[in-house]
Amino acid sequence: MSDSFADLLRTSLENNSTRPAIRFDQETLSYGDLALRLGGVVNLLKARGLRQGEVIALYTSDKKALLLTDLAAMLLGAISLPLNDRFTAPEMEYYLQDSTATLALTDDAGRETVAAAGAEQIGFRGIISTDEVLHAGQAALPEMPIASSAPAFMLYSSGTTGQPKGVLYHHDNLAAAVTALRDFWQIGFGDRLLNCLPLYHIHGVSFCSHMMLLSGAEMLIEPAFHPRRTLETLTECNVLFAIPTFYYSWLDHDFFRKMASGLSDVRLYTCGSAPIRSEVLPELEEILGQPITNRYGMTEAHVITSLPLGVSSLEGSCGVPLPGIQLRVVGIDRQDMPTGSVGQVLIKGPNIFREYWGRPEATAEAFEDGWFVTGDLGKLDDEGYLHHAGRCQEMIITSGHNVYPPMVERVLNALPGVRESAVFGLPHDRKGEIVAAVIVTDNTAELTEQHVHSWCVERLVDYSVPTRVFFVDNLPRNTMGKVLKRQLCVQWADAGQN
To answer: Would the pLDDT of 300 be above 50?
Structure first.
């Protein structure tokens, strides 16, 4: 059997042709319907000049058009690049240029942004509208076997330092990652998955969507999470893909306990993208009648660990490695840490991304003797369960969204009156972290937190805008001149909750 994601997808579409696949609003597509729709979109992409190995950026809030184009691009042998539809023109300019995207999918709301961002990019051939995708018609999928070593799918991550980097999965990486998760969670015929996550994030587009399409299951896609509406839709499903803020929101509403009585068919509540607070788990388990299946993953490695089905971990463990994945917790000397001791998490397996796009040095630095250095801290208990203990890297995760400090700092440093800035995350009970900024002024302007906020709102996606801003005389640095952000985190640790 082929280990190419495209070939596995094609096989699933054929073998499950009469089964329901995806429901968008009130339209349900069977696997056979989906295959015909994808054939039409493949022909559209070919007609617009997209070739194997080229990147198509996906910049739209239209989940149906995005997913059809994502899958069609990979079936064609091109590279799918979902991007946050709330990115501003300067942010889009960076991503289009860095990825060397030749085409971009967008809607009416994003057309001007994409046109401005791609105007000066060499090799950018233009825009495909969501309307074109949605009205591409039906056609048989062309016979186009895709090599397992071919590039397939890319998302951006900050890695450990520096500018956001394109995390490139080849077809074999993606296939290994989604089939391991499918088998561990026993996703298959009869399952109905609820997905109200954004499809520009690996959680919504790959952990859930790519995985279920190789399972014969059905997926209901909602535009976004809404406390009451999502609970109502969940009564039709038996598997929920969620982030901690979904559960926190439900606990804030009196109707949650009453409506939860109608969820007896749900067999799996998942949680990830940020650590869930262990203190809420007993109440959630009592209301829902079963444990929350916590898991640990990242853009570079898909899902790495998960609690086994039905296992309760009120201490907040994120489980054991999925089959095929090796995991170590090591100290500074790179020797394995004793059980219960915190160290850095290293992983190895077929699920791990192949390379950072156009950055061979960064790719080499991310691995040590074949082990991927996650930049995360953790410890293993006596049963081999991983307990996440924070991150070494600078990336901030707020309400499940990744925020890259260098991009925020670049915007702050362009504000008249700012000499330099440092951006970091502060702990927050509901969001996991909030974005905080420390600013050193050049005394040419009188700046306030409101000035900074107004400046950023116009130039950054909303969750990247600093929630707290502090003004200082200078930034702490080591002997090499690097800003010591950990000192800043400690100094203002309590400010995140205020």
So the answer is: yes
Distance CA 305, CA 367 (A): 19
3-state helix vs strand vs coil in the chain, percent to 5: 35, 25, 40
User: Has residue 332 been placed in a domain?
Assistant: yes
| Statement to judge: residues 217 and 261 lie in one domain | yes
Using alpha carbons, select from 196, 193, 205 the residue that is nearest to residue 83: 205
What range does the domain containing 49 cover? Answer: 5-147
What pTM was estimated for this model as a whole? 0.84
Is the Cβ–Cβ distance between 434 and 426 less than 8 Å?
A: yes
Total tally of structural domains belonging to the chain = 3
State whether 230 and 281 are in the same domain: yes
CB atoms within 10 A of CB 383: 10
In single-letter form, the type of residue at position 305 comes to T
pLDDT in tens, 84-93: 999 999 899 9
Q: Same domain, yes or no, for 75 and 106? A: yes
Quote the CA–CA distance of 367 and 50 in Å, as a whole number: 32
Same domain, yes or no, for 132 and 241?
Answer: no
Residue with tokens 């096989």: 11
**pLDDT over threshold 60, residue 479:** no
Rg of the chain's alpha carbons, rounded to an integer? 22
